[in-house]
Amino acid sequence: MVLCFCGKVDVVKTSWTPLNLGRRFFACPMNDSVRGFIGWLDPPMCARSKAIIPGLLRNLNSVQERCNELVRGMNMLQDQCNGLICKNNILVANVRALKDDNLKLKMYMFGSWFFFVIVFFYIWFV
């Protein structure tokens, strides 16, 4: 436990600057403090780590961005799918209505032919 100059317990933060990338340090817990940095918790990194870590972070960020693009694309496709399902439901309802209309027309047609046959036989045989 390390105490700050203000008397409060320090917090551990991580540096994201190019020279000390990923290195942890003690900082004043007061957000508006002029004494943000107090001291290093980790030893200095070797030159190889300083060269490799930025590339790894760039790769991680590009993979994360690609993942975000895929999620956005998936959400767009889901929205389109939902729209198509709604249109399909409307079309199914229209088909049912047309089938009902078709049945009614068949009944009218059968009735008119039946009436025609009765009238024809009445005229023919009377």
UniProtKB/TrEMBL annotation:
Q: Which residues cross the membrane?
A: 107-125
Keywords recorded for this protein, A-Z:
Membrane, Metal-binding, Transmembrane, Transmembrane helix, Zinc, Zinc-finger
Q: Classify the source by domain of life.
A: Eukaryota
Q: Transmembrane helix among the record's keywords?
A: yes
Every GRF-type domain range = 4-44
**A GO MF label:** zinc ion binding
Name any one Pfam family assigned in the record: Zn_ribbon_GRF
Query: PANTHER family attached here?
Result: ZINC ION-BINDING PROTEIN
Q: Tell me the protein's name.
A: GRF-type domain-containing protein
Annotated organism of origin: Lactuca saligna
Question: Top-down, what is the taxonomic lineage of the species of origin?
Answer: Eukaryota, Viridiplantae, Streptophyta, Embryophyta, Tracheophyta
